[in-house]
Amino acid sequence: MKLVFAIVHDEDEIEVMKSLNENGFSVTKLCSTGGFLRAGNTTLLVGVPKEKVELVIDIIKTKSKSRKKLINSANVPAMGVAMTAGYPVEITLGGATIFVVAVEKYEKA
């Protein structure tokens, strides 16, 4: 058994969960906040047999889109201090960060 942790952008969370559920996977959703820009993220937990891990990862990758966004550089913390004058900076948001860990014991009570 494996546990897949997937951190996805809030805008992708519904489609990722829907697709995982349609493919027979149960998902636990945790609301989370990213460290960069304090953007809203969702952390999904999916317990799966090890032979299904790649299917889960493929679903998450397919439904998690990267997107470009222009932001004012004054809104980006620079070494813990916000800058006072800013300029437009293009950043990439979205996609997914995925961790897979072994599960020593699993019980459903």
User: At the first level of CATH, what is the class of the domain at 2-66 and 93-102?
Assistant: Alpha Beta
What global shape is seen?
Answer: elongated
Describe the largest sheet: 4 strands, antiparallel
Radius of gyration: 17 Å
Please name the CATH architecture of the domain at 2-66 and 93-102: 2-Layer Sandwich
Overall pLDDT metric: 83
Topology, number of strands: 8
Q: List unreliable stretches of 5+ residues.
A: none
Q: What fold name stands as the CATH topology of the domain at 2-66 and 93-102? A: Alpha-Beta Plaits
SS strand fraction: 35-45%
What structural class is derived from the secondary structure elements?
alpha+beta
Cα(first) to Cα(last) distance is 17 Å
In helices, the fraction of residues equals 10-25%
Q: How many individual helices?
A: 2
Helix and strand run = EHEEHEEEEE
Q: Please give the order of strands in the largest beta sheet.
A: 2-3-1-8
Primary descriptors:
single chain; 109 residues; alpha+beta; Alpha-Beta Plaits; four-stranded antiparallel sheet; two-stranded antiparallel sheet; 2 helices; 8 strands; 44% strand
Give the secondary structure arrangement, pairings included.
Blueprint: E1 2-9, H1 13-22, E2 28-33, E3 40-48, H2 53-63, E4 66-72, E5 77-78, E6 81-82, E7 88-94, E8 96-102
Antiparallel strand pairs: 1-3, 1-8, 2-3, 4-7, 5-6
Helix pairs in contact: 1-2
